[in-house]
Design a protein that fits this description.
The protein is mainly α and 85 residues long. The protein is built from 2 helices and no strands. The two termini are 18 Å apart. Keywords: Membrane, Transmembrane, Transmembrane helix.
Amino acid sequence: MADEFAKGTAILAGVGLIWMVLAGWYKTPSFEGAQLTGAPPADLGTYGEMALVLESGLRWFIIIGVLTFWVVIPAAEQTREYFAG
């Protein structure tokens, strides 16, 4: 089960870094206010809108990927082993 933990950690670290960069660019209006969670600017171009969609998708990929590799797959393997023997 160490490989599942490593895959979940890689998703968390790698994709989390990309998410933090995009959130820092588009959702940090000032250093005194909300950082990484602020409201995005209203007048973004096409590429800015695509970056916000990508940032949202990456956030869900992190959550679902980590839960899958850290909870779902190990629980399924333990359940399979329990019923097999």
